[in-house]
Design a protein that fits this description.
15 helices, alpha/beta, two-stranded antiparallel sheet, 16 strands
């Protein structure tokens, strides 16, 4: 089903977070009694939130703090953490520089080569502090870095690219045999990113233990604008969840779907789960944390995704501690803090005792939800209108 966009050409209507709303349930549940647990093979997490593998979001200390709060921080193995013995000093220079200086710093940031010995060092720092070590690389170096990470004691490996597929065609370089790579790893492998039913199913059939869903929605991602590629997150998550459910029915293996990007508020997070997600990966909302290495800033080339222009820098919003952002108490009324409080309250309001039940709730198309009845918020500059 679709709409004609011209003679003989149809386009399917897709929906993003701002265009839908969750319908309250017939039964409500005490928010303190809902179960937000999600699982990745034998690993279990009480907070279904992953911090994105971006240099401005996750360093080793942030990864440890995410673990302490019940979530999972993913460290980028192709950024400053593995290029510099002391990455904190590099990040401090950027965070403290004015716009012109920051651009010059970032342009130089990725010129030094990756020091592979630092992969083990960073994983060791996370493990020694009691954290769960999740690390990420692009497919081009996954074969090599995956072995190093596994030997160093990593708990999770993420293979992440702008658009992930099983069949990548190139005569210019050797491509990663994803299925063979996953088979050779003794730790869970998450793969992404994709936005379609077919590719999600392909990745699961190749052995992925988790699949990242999202192309183009991130605050620092310019894929939609530069390449014209992407699918709004609600539709992408619904389609991926359908592939997950079919794969589970066929094989008995449940592969979590992780909605990645485009979530600024607790409401967005709740809608990601209501669309079928098992967990969410968040970047900009967690970059606001005072503990984040970016000190509230994003800058280009900090992630394998198509990103901001080289050297570009943007403030991500109201800052707070990581605990305030994840678990509260919130100091703002715009939905950017206490994400877990929003999730559990939403679950209670729709009568969902766990994430699976939240995935089954009714959604409605509500494109005016962000402005409907918000006259007082606009006039008083509160909430989303501050």
């Amino acid at each position: 089903m679709g709409f004609y966009v011209g003679r003989g050409r149809k386009a399917r209507r897709a929906f993003g977070f701002d265009e839908v709303a969750i319908v309250p349930g017939r039964v409500t549940v005490n928010p303190n009694e809902v179960d937000t647990t999600w699982r990745l093979n034998d690993l279990e997490f009480s907070v279904p939130i992953l911090a994105a593998a971006m240099d401005g979001v996750v360093d080793t200390k942030m990864a440890v703090r995410m673990s302490e709060l019940g979530g999972l921080g993913v460290l980028n193995l192709e950024g400053v953490q593995t290029r510099y013995e002391d990455p904190a000093s590099v990040l401090d220079q950027i965070a403290g520089a004015d716009a012109d200086e920051a651009t010059q710093h970032v342009q130089q940031l990725y010129r030094p080569p990756i020091q592979e010995n630092l992969i083990g060092v960073r994983i060791g720092e996370i493990k020694d502090a009691g954290g769960t070590a999740a690390v990420s690389s692009t497919p081009a170096v996954a074969g090599r870095f995956g072995r190093i990470a596994e030997e160093a004691g990593a708990d999770v490996f993420v293979v992440q690219s702008t658009v992930a597929t099983i069949d990548h065609i190139s005569t210019e370089y050797e491509t990663l045999d994803l299925q063979s790579f996953i088979d050779s790893m003794s730790i869970p492998v998450i793969v992404g990113n994709c936005v379609t039913y077919d590719v999600t199913l392909d990745l699961m059939e190749a052995g992925a233990d988790g699949v990242l869903i999202g192309v183009g929605p991130g605050a620092a991602c310019t894929t939609r604008g530069v390449l014209g590629i992407g699918v709004p997150q609600v539709t992408a998550t619904v389609d991926a969840a359908a592939a997950r459910d079919l794969f589970h029915k066929r094989t008995g293996k449940y592969v979590p779907v992780i909605t990645d990007g485009g979530m600024d508020t607790g409401g967005d997070v709740c809608k990601a789960f209501a669309s079928g997600g098992d967990a969410v990966m968040i970047g900009s909302a967690l970059a606001r944390a005072k503990e984040a290495p970016g000190r509230g800033y994003h800058w280009g080339m900090a992630t394998p995704h198509v990103n901001l222009p080289r050297g570009a820098r943007v403030k991500t919003g109201t800052s707070g501690t990581l605990e305030e952002i994840i678990a509260g108490p919130a100091r703002t009324d715009d939905g950017s803090q206490n994400l877990m409080g929003a999730l559990t309250t939403c679950m209670g309001s729709v009568g969902a005792k766990n994430i699976f039940e939240l995935q089954q709730v009714e959604l409605i198309i509500a494109p005016s939800i962000r402005s409907e009845g918000k006259l007082m918020q606009r006039s008083q500059h509160v909430g989303m209108w501050r």
